Amino acid sequence: MLLDRFLDHLAHEKRCSAHTVAAYRRDLEQFQGFLKALAGVEGAEHATEKTIRAWMMELLGGGVGARSVNRKLSALRAFYRFARTVGAVAGDPTELIDPPKTPKRLPEFVEEPRMDRLFAEVRWPEGMEGLRDRCILELFYTTGMRLAELLGLRVGDLDRGARTLRVLGKRNKERILPLSDGMVDQLDAYLLERAGVAPAGLEALFITPKGEPLGRRSVQRLVERYLGTVTTQRKRSPHVLRHTFATHMLEHGADLNAVKEILGHAGLAATQVYTHNTVEKLRKVHQQAHPRGGQ
Length: 295
What we know:
The protein is mainly alpha-helical. The protein folds into 2 domains: 2-85, DNA polymerase, domain 1; 112-285, Orthogonal Bundle (hpI Integrase, Chain A). The mean pLDDT is 90. 57% of the residues lie in helices and 4% in strands. Helix 6 (127-143) crosses helix 10 (238-251). It has a 3-stranded antiparallel beta sheet, with no helix packed on it.
């Protein structure tokens, strides 16, 4: 089946993450279901520009946001590029389709004083769990790593001498992140406690009190819970801490290219979105402080 061949191509040749492959599968299977119900046709390779537009209209009409529709359209474009390469289709029915316009949305982040309060005032649980939770929050905030990258950390990824941490990013691209002396000390304290819980041979850095690798949802919940002690904003996720890291770095004068490398972005465009927050902050200061700032 062409869809399975495409997904194998993503996983083994493009080296996409399992999360990315699963997202492509969901979007393409959803489209194929729509196609079968509309025209009784099996397989996305038999779609036309008209049926793709009809699917997009149904999604938008059903309340699916423009960003989500754009993501699904991107999945279709990637599928048809592959289908043309292997000779399964003669043309790309998405070629003349424009993506729906999306409102410009700045990344949400937590203000610096609130992050200071988090590490100064929050009461962390006793023992391994408290040390683990603090390490997780500090790593997200001081390195900007992604949730999947944190979950993939192994004990051997920490280099104490160099004060660095090796992470495996998107498309299995490895990068080295700098750590502060304090962060290394925090990890060392956690690893001492971890040693009394972890079974022999377990490589996962962050584990549960039962000695099992910490799961994705568990990390999301603990980040949401701790951020909830210092902010009432709706979004309180690991990705918000990634945004927070980048925003605070740029506010303190960090070089844009350096932030790009630490975040693991492929190009500067993805990093430049964070400069909008700093520009808006400067604009407010200018309006308040300059005699003609508000005119």
